[in-house]
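Write out this protein's structure.
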Amino acid sequence: MRLRLAVAYDGTAFSGWARQPARRTVQGELEAALATVLRCPVDLTVAGRTDAGVHATGQVVHVDVPRAAWEEQRERLVRRLRGVLPPDVAVAAVTEAPPGFDARFGALARHYAYRLTDADSGPPPLRRADTVGWPRRLDAAAMDRAAGLMPGEHDFAAFCRRREGATTVRTLLALTVDREGDLVTVRASADAFCHSMVRSLVGALLAVGEGRKAPDWPAALLARRERAGEVPVAPPGGLTLLRVDYPPDADLAARAQVTRARRA
C-alpha cells in the first residue's frame, strides 16, 4: 500500500534530498528512519528534489509498504519517527495515499520562497539558516518588474543545469518580488522546476536589483537554448520549498500519466 508523508527539513547540513554514497542526504536519513520503525526496506519518491543546502516546510513524499507494517504503526508512526530522525528533519503527518497518487508526477505546482536581507547587520540570528545576507542594497521594485515578464510556458534552458534527456520546458505560474523593511522575498511557482532553476531565476533578478542589468534582461534570456553562463546561481540557504499542490483525488492518476508523458 502507498503512504503519503508531509516532510520538513533544515537543508543546511544536507547534500540535498537525493540519496548519495557517503553523503548525508534527507532521503537517506528518512529512509533509514522509516526502515527502522516499519522493519521493512523502503524507497521514497519525492515531489521536489531539493539541492544541497535548500530547505523545505511543505515537502511531499510517497512510499509503498506492506499493509501489515502500516497497520501495526499507524497510530504512533509520526511520534516514533520523531524519536529516530535527526533534529533537522521532521515528518508532520503520514496518511494512506488515495488511489493513483504519485508525489512527483501527480503534482500540479510547486511553490518556493527565497529570502534575503540587505540590512547592514545581516540576517537576524534566528533566521540565519533560511535568509541570505546580501552585501549591496537591492531595488526590489525593479526586480519585481523583471519578474513580471517571466511567467508562462517557456524553455528555461538558460536558467537550468541540463540533465541528459530531460526537457527544460516549464510553465512558470508566478514570479514575484516584495520588500518588507530589509527583507526581500522572491516567490516562485511552477508546474515543476528543473535543476537549479529557482536559484538561477533569483540570481538573474539580483543582477537587476543591483542595477547591473535592465529589468528586461532576464526575460530576454528565454530565447537561449543552452545554459547562460552569465546568470549567477543564488546561494542555496535562502531557498525553501513551501507547498506542493495536487488535483482532486479522482484526477490523480490522469495527472500523473500526463506528466510522465510530458517529461519523457
